[in-house]
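re the bet — no i am not wrong, look at it urself. input seq straight from the record:
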Amino acid sequence: MIASYCTDALAEPQELRWVLRKTDDAINVTIYKFPDVAVSPDLPDSDGTVQVPR
């Protein structure tokens, strides 16, 4: 599993965490949203809200 982090320093201090999982020939991407980047690095992925692409 590989996770990357994305924040916007000029907006609300939130975190978007991208989790990539490889299964067979596919790569699944799940994006989790955390409302407060000050505490989210210590939280598991399951504590975030799953973001659905539009």
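see?? The chain is about 0% helix and 50% strand. told u. also The radius of gyration is 12 Å. so pay up
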